[in-house]
Specification:
single chain, 560 residues, alpha+beta, six-stranded antiparallel β-sheet
Length: 560
């Protein structure tokens, strides 16, 4: 319901248009200031630019300034009342009472960014269904993709790229976005039930698949089911750094090899590729595993916990009930996709390593040397940019980028601190590498002093082979060197980390792994506009490689 000045409800939570806001403001202010015209009210409403999820107090401050520019002086209490009316409420007290209940804001992209406020996920469920049905009526789709961040849930649909004649290349168009109102750490806790309602509405009726809800369900129930068994609790809010992993393990004691990772559609489409050589395509449930012919496939949930250098990794096999539910949904997807599930996405974007960090750690010694070359001191640079800042290694991302742009060092990546051994994680299996490699753009490594030349050459060749395979995978994911009708399965690359580990182990070497930032020059790649940052930011896998015995001695020394 959209409120108007004549029919404003104490329960109004939907935004008013600028014209409605102007009328509401004029209706309240005009009796107090008769020379305040409706055109003035429209100008003030545009200037104030109130948001539906904004506190009336902050709007009231801007409103007093805007009205003062029209020669109208109102008290703070009156400004609060007027601000409440701009938001569509009957008055300040109604706004304060109702706003305290609203936890979620939904923005419908298909309706000019229309916003609505809701008290909880149960209330929002019917609107999710209505907006997806509305999209299906306008432009049929077989998949609604659900993606999460720390403060958003977005539902999108794949559509053919507008600038590409090929139907095989798609881009994602948002249908709606849900955000928490304010700082609410538990805003996603009740989301699984609402999205399960949406899933049933679309999937059980054969309309479309809702991709991305399985991981949310598994994250939301992991803590309750497993209690203290997990090294770190997995909650609904961890969905933005979690993904399904499908492993072929023909025996319960066999660790197996990875087939796919990501959300349902990605894993199902890769599963279809993996069973192409089986005599049958019929899936039979065997406990928590899927069996197809002689192949046994196990589902897992992988969650990365952000950290400066080494993320935490929590990883578990999903149970029999959840595996059976995934299998039933897979059969529904097969029916919808005419017997074989296909999907465009390979690597799922996770929040960790998928966004800029707030701070980056720099090597102060190298940075000061570069500043000295430029004839600049720390204090002089801070004064130059008007940002006094203590000389510490951990610096805000904007400050780091601006100083690199000012200095223009030959190798900007040399400014970033290389992690110490004690900050890295020893690689005794490939689980961490499998989780990190799809999000890595570059590899750096370090060897101890005195390594023989033949060992150096072996390590360099092994790292280069690993890096080349990683670059090739990214090119093929972008649609290069691959036939869309006959794509290479993900498992071709999934074991690269383990192959590198085993190759180094042949020579008695062990790796310690972590992540650090990496800058790529964009010169010659994209058009350089004036005053634009000439680098793209990515992630580098940092490997500290040492002989097994030396590594053990160093670790024991640190532990002691």
């Amino acid at each position: 319901m959209t409120a108007s000045p004549s029919s404003a409800s104490a329960d109004a939570v939907n935004p008013l248009s600028e014209q409605e806001q102007a009328l509401a403001l004029w209706t309240y202010v005009h009796p107090k200031a008769p020379r305040f015209a409706l055109d003035d009210a429209l100008e003030v409403a545009k200037q104030v630019a109130s948001r539906i999820d904004e506190e009336p107090k902050s709007i009231a401050k801007r409103l007093r300034v805007a009205l003062a520019s029209k020669g109208i002086d109102i008290k703070h209490a009156s400004a609060l009342e007027a601000a409440a009316r701009l938001l569509g409420y009957f008055g300040w007290h109604a706004a304060r009472r109702i706003a305290s209940k609203n936890r979620l804001k939904l923005t419908a992209m298909s309706d000019m960014g229309r916003e609505q406020l809701f008290t909880d996920w149960r209330e929002i469920a019917s609107t999710l269904r209505a907006l997806c049905d509305e999209w299906l009526q306008q432009r049929p789709t077989r998949v609604f993709q659900v993606r999460f961040g720390p403060a958003y849930m977005m539902i999108s649909v794949p559509v053919p790229k507008q600038d590409d004649g090929s139907a095989d290349k798609v881009e994602m168009w948002p249908v709606l976005v849900v955000n928490p109102v304010g700082n609410d750490a538990g805003w996603l806790d009740d989301a699984p039930a609402a999205l399960e309602t949406l899933r049933r509405h679309l999937e059980e009726t054969g309309k479309a698949i809702v991709d991305g809800v399985a991981v949310l369900h598994l994250c939301g129930t992991a803590t309750d089911l497993l209690g203290g068994l997990l090294p770190q609790p997995v909650r609904a809010r961890d969905v933005c750094n979690s993904e399904l992993v499908l492993v072929r393990a023909d025996d319960e004691l066999d660790p197996g090899y990875e087939i796919a990772r990501g959300d349902e559609m990605t894993c199902w489409s890769q599963f279809e590729l993996a069973i192409d050589d089986h005599k049958t395509r019929e899936v039979i449930l065997d406990g928590g595993a899927w069996r197809v012919g002689a192949g046994r496939y196990v589902w897992q949930l992988s969650t990365l916990y952000p950290n400066d250098v080494v993320p935490g990794l929590v990883f578990r096999e999903i149970g029999e009930i959840d595996s059976a539910k995934l299998c039933r949904r897979f059969r529904l997807a097969r029916r919808l996709f005419k017997d074989k599930v296909t999907h465009h996405e390979h690597t799922k974007r996770l929040e960790y390593l998928g966004t800029l960090a707030e701070n980056y750690r720099v090597d102060l010694r190298r940075l000061l040397l570069e500043m000295k070359k430029a004839g600049l001191s720390w204090d002089e640079y801070c004064a130059e940019v008007g940002e006094p800042r203590p000389m510490v290694p951990n610096l805000p991302v904007g400050f780091v980028f601006s100083i690199l742009e000012r200095l223009k060092p030959e190798d900007p990546n040399a400014i970033f601190t290389r992690p110490a051994r004690s900050e890295l994680s020893r690689v005794d299996d490939d689980r961490l590498l499998r989780a990190l490699t799809p999000r890595i753009d570059h590899v750096r490594y370090r060897l101890p002093v005195g390594v023989p030349a033949d060992i150096k050459k072996t390590v360099h060749e092994a790292i280069e082979e690993f890096s080349t395979s990683m670059r090739l995978q990214k090119l093929q994911e972008a649609g290069n060197f691959v036939d869309p009708k006959n794509p290479l399965p993900y498992l071709v690359y999934a074991s690269d980390g383990e192959e590198l580990r085993l190759k180094l182990a042949e020579y008695g070497l062990v790796m310690h792994a972590g992540v650090m930032p990496h800058l790529f020059s964009t010169k010659g790649v994209i058009e350089q506009l004036p005053n634009t940052w000439p680098f793209a930011i990515g992630n580098s896998l940092f490997l500290d490689i040492d002989f097994q015995a030396s590594s053990d001695r160093k670790e024991n020394k640190v532990a002691a």
